[in-house]
Queue: 3 jobs
Job 1
Amino acid sequence: MIEFTATTHPGNRYQHNEDAIGWSEEAGLWFVADGMGGHARGDIASATAKKALLSAAIDPARSLTDLVLLAHEAVLLEGIERDLPNMGSTLVVARVAHDQLSVGWCGDSRAYLWREGQLLRVTRDHSLLEQLLESGVVAPEEAFGHPRRNVLIQALGINDPRPEPGEVTLTLNNDDLLLLCSDGLHDELQDGTIADVVQALSDPKAIVAELERRVLRGDARDNLSIICLRVSDLEPRSVDALNAAQVRDQLRASQSSLITTRRRVVDTLELPVVPDVVPREVPNVQAPTGRAFEPESTSENSESADNTSNTDLWLALVGVGLLVGLVLLFT
C-alpha cells in the first residue's frame, strides 16, 4: 500500500508558480517538474512535461529514462512552436511496482529515501555545483547556499547537449518513505533539517505540512514542490531489501558513471577561480531565481573569444594613437 501527500506553492517572492507536480496511482508514477525561463515560460515547460508523462505513464514497457526523454522532446517542441528558445524544466519521477522503486531525473529536482533512521539522497544533481563537489573544488560544508548552485549542466528542453537522464532502481522495505522535491526545498532547508522533520513526524501529510511551513517561514525565494510517499504492507519475500548502508553503496556505484560522464564539464573551467566564472550567454535559460543553463565550452567559442579580445586591443591602440596625434597638433 502507498500513502502519499503532495503540495506545490509559489513561495514568498513570486505570485506565479513554475513548478508542476503530478501522479498516476494506476501506473504507480509520481513526479515533480521545475520550469525555467521566466514567467509564461517556466510554467509552460513544466506543464508540458507533466502532460507528456501522464499520457505515457500507463505503459509499463517504458523505462523512466524513456519517459524523461519523452518529456524532454515535448518541452523542446513546445518551445520551438511557441518561439520560446529559453524554455526548460527539471524533472524527477518515481515509479513503484510491487516492491521495486525506480527513480529517473534530469536537472536538480531531487528524490530522497528514508530508511532505518537515515535520509539517503537517491538522485545526483545535474548541476555545476555537484561537479565541483565531486572534483573537490567545493567542500561539502560549502555547498549549501553556494552562489553557483543554480547553474545546471542539463535540463529538459535544452538540445545542446541532449539530456542524459539518471536512473536508479531499489528494492523497497515496509515503512520506507520517498520524498520528491524541487530546489525550492533543498535550497532552503539542509538535508539534516529535512531528516529531522521526517524522523519526528513519519506521517506523509504531517511531513509535507511541516517542511512547507519551515520553508515559507524563511526566505522561500523560489517555488516549492514536495511529494511524500510511504510504503507499507509489502508482501513477504525470500530476499530482504538492502539496509541503509548497503543502499548508500548501491547508489554510489550506480551514479559513478554519471559522475564520469559529466566530469568533462568541470574540466573546461579554470577551477581555482570558479566563483568568478560567468555562465555563457548563449544558450542561457534564466529562471526568476537566477538559475542558468551552462553547456560545455567549445574550441570554436574559445577561438571567437580570443579574436574578440584581439580586436578590442587593436581598437584601443588606435584610439591612443589618435589622442596623442591631436595633442601634438595643438601644442
Job 2
Amino acid sequence: METTDPGRALNLIMESEGWSQRNLGSELGLTQGWVSSVVTGRRDPGIKRFASIVGQVGWEVVIRPKRRIPVKRREFHEKVIKTASGAIAGKAAGMLGVSSEAGGPYAEPDYVLSLAQRAADLRDELGGVPIATKVISQSRSISAALPKGGKELRVSASEFSRQAAWTVYDAGRPDVALSLAGDALNLATYGPDTERQAAAHALLSDLYLQEGKPERAAYHAQEGLKLPDVSEGIRAALKAYLGWAFGQSTWAGSSKSRSQKFIDQARSQEQLSPLDQAWVHGVSGLVLHKVGENREAFMSFEDAVRITEPLPAAQYQANDLANAASVALACRDLDRAAELMGMLAYVAPLITSRWVDRKVSSVLSESARWVKVPDINLARERLMLAMPSVIEKRGQR
C-alpha cells in the first residue's frame, strides 16, 4: 500500500489496524483533532515530523526519485534571497516614492488609504526598516493636510497611522510607534469609526505587550471589545491579546484559566482573512507555551506558518518560526528546534526587520548551550551565515 498524501496515509493505517481517528491519535500521542485535520487536508504535518509520527506505529515514509529532477530547495532559496536583497531598496522607494508636499494628494482620503495598504504590504514582504523613514515623512504630510479635511480623511489618516506605527516599531523605534498608535486611536474616535477605533486599541495592546506592559495591553483589548459593529478579525485579535496579557501578567485578576479562555475564543473565531488567522495562531502559540500547553503551542505555530507560506508575508513566517524555535529549545525538543532554525535561516534574510533580528539573536543565545549537539550546531551555523548583521550586532554588545 503506497500513497503520496499524508491524509490518505493515515486512512491506510486506520484501515489496516482497525482503528478510529481517536484510537490512532492515542497511539501516536496526539489528539483526534490533529488526525482529523491531516486526513481532511487542513494540516500539512511536514515530512520529517510525519515520518517520525507514523514510525511509532510501524509505518515509514519512503522518498524515491522522480523522472524529472526538481530544483534543489537550498539553491532556490539562495537565488530568492540574492534577488530580494538586491531589490529591496529600489522596490521600497518605487512603491512609496511620492511627494512630501503638504495638502495635494494627502488631503484625499482614498489616496491616504492606498498609502496605508502599500505600507502594510511592503512591511509584510520586506520588513519595516527599508520604508520607515518614508512612512514617517508621509505621516507628517498627512497631519499637515488634516485641517483641510473632514471625517473621511480622519478615518483614512487613522488607518495610515496604524500601519505606520507597526512599520516604525518593526524598524526599532517603539517611542514613535506608540505616538502614532495614539494618533490612530484619536483620529478614529473623532472620525468617528468604531472599526478603526477597535483596530487602534488592538495595535496599542500589541505594542504594550511587546514592551512588557500587560496591564495597559489588557486595558486596550478590553476597551476594543466593548465597541459595537467590529469585524471578526479585529475581535479575534483583541481576544488573543487579552489572553496574552492575562498569561503574562502578575497583576490581580490574571490567571491561566482566563488566558486560555480568551485564546480559545480567538482561535474559534470564524470568517478571518489568512493573515488574521496566521496572527491569531502565532499569538496563541506564545500563550499556550506560557501556560504549559507545549504540544498545542507547536500546532498553533505550524498552522500559522502553513497559512502564510503561499503569501508574500515573510515577516509573519520569520516571527512564527523564531517563536516556535524558542519554545522547542525551552522544551529541549532539539530535533524540532534544529529543523525550525534551519527554516528560519531561509526566511529571515528575505526581510529587513529589527524585530526579526532581535528574535534571531534570541534564538542564537538560547541555542548556545546545545552547541555540542550536531544538528543544533549545524542549524546555528546556517542561521549565522544567513544573518551576518545579527552576528555583528551581537559582537558589539
Job 3
Amino acid sequence: MGRQKNDGLSYFPLDVGFFEDKRIRRLIGTFGTEGAAFYIYILCKVYSNGYYAEYSEDFVEDAALDLGCTREKIELMLHYLSNKSLIDSTLFDTVKVLSSHGIQRQYQESRKGAKRDVEVARRFWILKDSETEKHIKVCPNEDKSEKKEDISENKKDNSEKNAVKEKENKIKENKEDITDSSESVCRSEARRAVEAWNSLSSLGIPPVTKITADSTRGKSLKARLMQNGIDDILKAIENIRNSDFLCGKNKRNWVITFDWFVKPNNFPKVLEGNYNNRTPQSSERYITDEPYDNSEEYRNYNPFTEDNR
C-alpha cells in the first residue's frame, strides 16, 4: 500500500464530552478503560499519519505492547470499533485501513490553514463531495506517491517491463517458500524453527499458523537463520520454556509472540537468557517483571556482604 506525503497533525482536539458519548461508554463497559485507551491510541496513530492508519500485524503487535494487552484483545476491540462505527467498517474490511467520517471531518478542519491544497486518496477518503471542503484535493484513485510510481513505470521500455514481469512470476511461484536458496538457507531449517516454536503452545504461547516468504515474519525468520543459524534459534526457543516472564507470568499478562521473537532487537535478549527465571539466593531478593542482568557482577552479588547492606 502506497503512502501519501505526510500531512500528519502535531496534535488534535479531544471533545470534553468524549466519555459521555454512548458508544464510548459501551466500549468501556465491554472492555474496561483499555477500550477507551485503545480508541485514543488509534486516533493518535491516525492523526500522526494524516487521516488514516494502516491495519497490519505490526500495528496489532505494537498496540498490544504499548497498551499492555494481548493481541487477541486488540483484535477483538478493533472488530468491536468497526461494528459500532467508531471506525469505518468498509475501509477496515476491504483495504485494511483505520479511519472514520468523524476523523476525516476533524482532519480537514485542522488543515484549513495549510498554505497548499491537501491531497487525499479517493479510495481512503469517505467524506462525500458535498462534505469535502475546497482545500482538500481528492486524487481520483491513488495517492501522490503511487502516481509518481506509475509515471516512472510508464517510462520503462519493453525489455525492462519483461524483466520485471519475469521476476514477479518467479516470486509468485515461490510465494510459499520461507527461504532463498541463493542465501543457503534451507526450508527444512525454517520448518524446524516453526515446529519448535509451535511446541510451546502447551505453555499458552500462540503457535504460528501461517508464514510466507514475503510476509514480515517470513523475512525476519530468514534474517535470523542467516545471521544466527538454526542451533541458536532452537536454543532461544528452549530459553522461552525457562522464562515465566515470556510465558505470561508478569503484571501485564503479556505473552511472547513469534513476530516479537524474531525481531532483530529482541532475539539476542532471548538467546542470551536475559528473560530466564532467576535462581533465588536469599529471602531478601525479590522478583520484578523486568529482565534481569545476567552479568558476572550480578551473579556474584551477595546482599549480606558488608558493602551491600
